[in-house]
């Protein structure tokens, strides 16, 4: 850690994300995944659906919706700090 990988990734993301149907840059995944997975799923969907709010009720539903969105759209997803 500490060499600016997130900063570089974010700069590249900002440069190219407009080329995709949707995009999401999620930070600190390792720490956040210990908590509310549903919130992470909501954030991911919010990005890949270009700001549309999509209510998911549970993690399994989130998985299904995310799979559908990823298979039918050209999206850029960056997950920062993943084990």
TrEMBL record:
SUPFAM superfamilies on file: P-loop containing nucleoside triphosphate hydrolases
UniProt-listed GO biological process terms: defense response
One Gene Ontology molecular-function label: ADP binding
Residue ranges of every copy of the NB-ARC domain listed in the record: 1-82
Domain of life: Eukaryota
Record's protein name: Resistance protein candidate
One Pfam family per UniProt: NB-ARC
Lineage: Eukaryota, Viridiplantae, Streptophyta, Embryophyta, Tracheophyta
């Amino acid at each position: 850690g500490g060499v600016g990988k997130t900063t570089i990734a974010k700069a590249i993301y900002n440069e190219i994300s407009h080329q995709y149907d949707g995009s999401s840059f999620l930070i600190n995944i390792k720490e956040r995944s210990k908590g509310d997975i549903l919130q992470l799923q909501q954030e991911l969907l919010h990005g890949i659906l270009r700001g549309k709010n999509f209510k998911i009720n549970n993690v399994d539903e989130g998985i299904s919706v995310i799979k559908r969105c990823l298979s039918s759209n050209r999206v850029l997803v960056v997950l920062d700090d993943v084990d």
